[in-house]
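Below sits my pick:
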Amino acid sequence: MEKYDMITKSNMKHLYYSVPQTIAHHSVTGCNMGTGDMLGTGTISGTDKSAYGCLIELTWKGTQPIQMSSGEERKFLQDGDTIMMRGICEGEGYTIGFGEATGTIIPALDESFYQP
Protein backbone atom coordinates (compact mmCIF):
# COMPACT_ATOMS: atom_id res chain seq x y z
CA MET A 1 0.00 0.00 0.00
CA GLU A 2 1.31 3.42 -0.97
CA LYS A 3 1.84 6.12 1.64
CA TYR A 4 -0.14 9.31 1.29
CA ASP A 5 0.19 12.65 3.08
CA MET A 6 -3.04 13.99 4.57
CA ILE A 7 -3.27 17.54 3.29
CA THR A 8 -6.53 18.69 4.85
CA LYS A 9 -9.41 17.41 6.93
CA SER A 10 -12.59 19.39 7.28
CA ASN A 11 -16.14 18.90 8.48
CA MET A 12 -19.56 19.61 7.00
CA LYS A 13 -20.42 21.58 10.12
CA HIS A 14 -18.42 24.39 8.48
CA LEU A 15 -20.74 24.62 5.46
CA TYR A 16 -22.48 27.94 4.91
CA TYR A 17 -25.70 26.16 3.91
CA SER A 18 -26.99 22.94 5.49
CA VAL A 19 -27.80 19.96 3.26
CA PRO A 20 -31.57 20.66 3.46
CA GLN A 21 -30.92 24.30 2.50
CA THR A 22 -28.77 23.14 -0.44
CA ILE A 23 -31.56 20.87 -1.67
CA ALA A 24 -34.09 23.69 -1.30
CA HIS A 25 -31.82 26.06 -3.22
CA HIS A 26 -31.34 23.46 -5.96
CA SER A 27 -35.04 22.68 -6.36
CA VAL A 28 -36.64 26.11 -5.81
CA THR A 29 -36.28 27.01 -9.50
CA GLY A 30 -38.11 23.86 -10.58
CA CYS A 31 -35.14 21.57 -11.05
CA ASN A 32 -36.43 18.13 -10.11
CA MET A 33 -34.49 15.87 -7.79
CA GLY A 34 -34.42 12.16 -8.48
CA THR A 35 -33.33 9.05 -6.63
CA GLY A 36 -29.56 8.74 -6.84
CA ASP A 37 -28.93 12.42 -7.63
CA MET A 38 -25.76 13.75 -6.05
CA LEU A 39 -25.16 17.32 -4.95
CA GLY A 40 -21.68 18.68 -4.32
CA THR A 41 -20.84 21.11 -1.57
CA GLY A 42 -17.83 22.71 -3.18
CA THR A 43 -14.87 23.55 -0.97
CA ILE A 44 -15.46 23.09 2.76
CA SER A 45 -13.05 25.25 4.73
CA GLY A 46 -12.78 25.00 8.48
CA THR A 47 -11.86 27.60 11.03
CA ASP A 48 -8.13 26.81 11.22
CA LYS A 49 -5.41 26.06 8.65
CA SER A 50 -5.57 22.26 9.15
CA ALA A 51 -9.17 22.35 7.86
CA TYR A 52 -8.76 24.68 4.88
CA GLY A 53 -10.45 23.08 1.92
CA CYS A 54 -8.06 23.68 -0.97
CA LEU A 55 -4.38 24.22 -1.79
CA ILE A 56 -4.87 27.88 -2.69
CA GLU A 57 -5.98 28.49 0.92
CA LEU A 58 -3.51 26.07 2.50
CA THR A 59 -0.52 27.63 0.72
CA TRP A 60 -1.79 31.20 0.99
CA LYS A 61 -1.97 31.62 -2.80
CA GLY A 62 1.27 29.67 -3.28
CA THR A 63 3.38 31.83 -0.97
CA GLN A 64 3.60 29.24 1.85
CA PRO A 65 4.44 25.77 0.42
CA ILE A 66 3.33 22.57 2.14
CA GLN A 67 6.13 20.22 3.23
CA MET A 68 5.44 16.63 2.17
CA SER A 69 6.79 13.57 4.04
CA SER A 70 8.97 12.80 0.97
CA GLY A 71 10.80 16.10 1.49
CA GLU A 72 9.11 17.68 -1.52
CA GLU A 73 7.15 20.90 -1.24
CA ARG A 74 3.86 21.68 -2.92
CA LYS A 75 2.26 25.03 -3.69
CA PHE A 76 -0.07 23.62 -6.32
CA LEU A 77 -0.84 20.19 -7.77
CA GLN A 78 1.75 18.87 -10.22
CA ASP A 79 1.70 16.33 -13.04
CA GLY A 80 1.96 12.87 -11.52
CA ASP A 81 0.38 13.82 -8.17
CA THR A 82 -2.29 11.40 -6.98
CA ILE A 83 -5.21 12.85 -5.05
CA MET A 84 -7.45 10.74 -2.84
CA MET A 85 -10.63 12.00 -1.20
CA ARG A 86 -12.59 10.13 1.42
CA GLY A 87 -15.83 11.12 3.03
CA ILE A 88 -17.79 9.71 5.93
CA CYS A 89 -20.75 10.64 8.07
CA GLU A 90 -20.82 9.53 11.68
CA GLY A 91 -23.68 9.31 14.10
CA GLU A 92 -24.41 7.54 17.34
CA GLY A 93 -23.25 3.98 16.71
CA TYR A 94 -22.83 4.19 12.93
CA THR A 95 -20.50 5.38 10.18
CA ILE A 96 -21.49 5.75 6.53
CA GLY A 97 -18.89 6.36 3.84
CA PHE A 98 -18.62 6.44 0.08
CA GLY A 99 -15.15 4.94 -0.13
CA GLU A 100 -12.29 6.63 -1.92
CA ALA A 101 -12.28 8.85 -4.98
CA THR A 102 -8.74 8.74 -6.39
CA GLY A 103 -7.20 10.30 -9.48
CA THR A 104 -3.75 11.12 -10.84
CA ILE A 105 -2.87 14.40 -12.52
CA ILE A 106 -1.64 13.70 -16.04
CA PRO A 107 0.25 16.15 -18.27
CA ALA A 108 -1.76 18.29 -20.67
CA LEU A 109 -1.57 17.31 -24.31
CA ASP A 110 1.08 19.08 -26.36
CA GLU A 111 -0.51 21.95 -28.33
CA SER A 112 0.81 20.42 -31.57
CA PHE A 113 -1.68 17.60 -31.00
CA TYR A 114 -4.46 20.02 -31.95
CA GLN A 115 -2.74 21.43 -35.06
CA PRO A 116 -3.91 20.15 -38.49
The chain has one domain: 12-114. The chain is about 10% helix and 20% strand. The first strand starts at residue 66 and ends at 67.
